[in-house]
Amino acid sequence: MTTTSPPLRLGLTGGIGSGKSTVAQMLLAQGAAVIDADAIARSTTAPSGSAMHAIEQTFGAEFLDPKGALDRDRMRKHVFANPQAKQMLESIIHPLVTQETQRQAQAATHAGKHTLVFDVPLLVESGRWRAQVDRLLVVDCLVETQIQRVMSRNGFSRETVEKIIHAQASRLQRLAAADWVIYNDSLSLDALLNLVSALPLDGVD
Predict the structure, then answer these.
(1) Is the confidence at residue 125, as pLDDT, over 50?
(2) First to last CA, the chain
(3) What is the pLDDT, as a whole number, of residue 80?
(4) What would you report as the CA-atom Rg of the chain, rounded to the nearest whole angstrom?
(5) Cβ neighbours of residue 83 closer than 8 Å, sequence gap 6 or more
(6) Are 69 and 46 in contact (CB under 8 A)?
(7) Does residue 205 register a pLDDT over 50?
(8) Cα(3)–Cα(139) distance, integer angstroms
(9) pTM of the entire structure?
(10) 97: closest CA among 120, 116, 74?
(11) In degrees to the nearest 10, what's the CA dihedral of 79, 97, 119, 176?
(12) Which segments within 59-133 are labelled E, that is strand?
């Protein structure tokens, strides 16, 4: 019976607007399995999502949109104004995300993937993720670059983007936790791809 080494567990994070999702897609194209914690969280708060009953019971029906999904704008404002609400929301969503993340990781391992990329926006902030990955890749850029990218992409005001950034770990905190860093401030897509391709991901299939 042939034994195989366990897959490399690569944590991927970066502040909003850093280009983390672009890097994740590049890693996916190179054969890694990408497990997107934010996408999983969004699925739990979609219409009929696994978190929606508890959210309605905890926060009230006014936090649901007409389709029965989480009213993200309303919840975002509520959470910014009320730190306790953030903890309550996380206590509902995080266990569901953990469960689905583990399921996807097991499926990718069974499928023979040699690199599992855990795309986690708040990986450093969580305090628990760092011990669960073998390497941590941080996509970094200047804060002003983040602001301009998100204002252009999402149509948010500067004030809204700044609040989101301030609610996340600082650049220094992320960089202090990193094993590898890609500085994605003024790179072309080709230059970014070259840096991603140069990562020492031994055994990516």
Answers:
(1) yes
(2) 21
(3) 84
(4) 18
(5) none
(6) yes
(7) no
(8) 34
(9) 0.85
(10) 120
(11) 60
(12) 115-119
Give the 3-state secondary structure of residue 160.
helix
CA dist., res. 58 & res. 199, Å (int)? 44
pLDDT tens readout for residues 98-116: 999 999 999 999 999 999 9
Rounded distance between C-alpha atoms, residue 79 and residue 105, angstroms = 30
Look-up of token digits 């002003």:
144
CA distance 21 to 112: 23
Would you report the helix, strand and coil content of the chain in percent, each value rounded to 5? 55, 15, 30
Q: Mean of the pLDDT values across residues 117-137?
A: 88
- Both tokens of 16, joined, read 């909003």
Spatial separation of the C-alpha atoms in residues 88 and 57, rounded to whole Å = 12
How far is Cα 30 from Cα 35, in angstroms, rounded to an integer?
A: 14
Q: What is the DSSP letter of 32?
A: -
Residue 119 has pLDDT above 90, yes or no: yes
Token pair 């509902």 in the structure block, residue: 92
Per DSSP, what are the bridge partners of residue 12? 119, 137
| Alpha carbon of residue 150 to chain centroid | 15
